[in-house]
Amino acid sequence: MDRLKQAMRWLDRMVEWLGAYLMLVMVVIVFWQVFSRYVFHHTPAWSEEMVLTVMQWFGFISIAAGFRQQMHLRITFIVDRFPKWMQRGIDKAIDLLVVLYGCVLTVEGYRFTLLTWSSRLPVTGLPNGLQYLVIPAAGALTVLYGLVHLLSREGKVR
Q1: pLDDT, tens digit, 9 for 90 and up, residues 122-136
Q2: Of 39, 44, 47, 91, which one's alpha carbon is 20 to 30 angstroms from that of 124?
Q3: What whole-number distance in Å separates Cα of residue 106 and Cα of residue 12?
């Protein structure tokens, strides 16, 4: 169990570092884009395409991190009125829905990545599927995080 906890902590740090790195890359690219436009009167053609790709990656990684930290929007004013045993059941159902959502992201994201991999982004020439490769990765993380929450509610993992 300790190895599992260590592995999850390591994975959490990696996901957070990846998110921070992607944010930094976005800021640097946008800064360079604006600086080039106003100082050199020339906008790099690649900058918009790359910042959009990085933004997609950041968004999907943030979705998975949000599920891990249970930071997504939740309206509880009705559920709070239920008995505790029912609240726990609803929480388990939510965790199962998160796992299901992650499965859909993983499978459909994988299919979409394969479908778009052969086409190329117009400016950089990178595979178009590179933009969407993050979807199955974020889906797999979401499944993992949902299972961890579900097992922690059962008292099997903390």
Answers
A1: 999 999 999 999 999
A2: 39
A3: 19
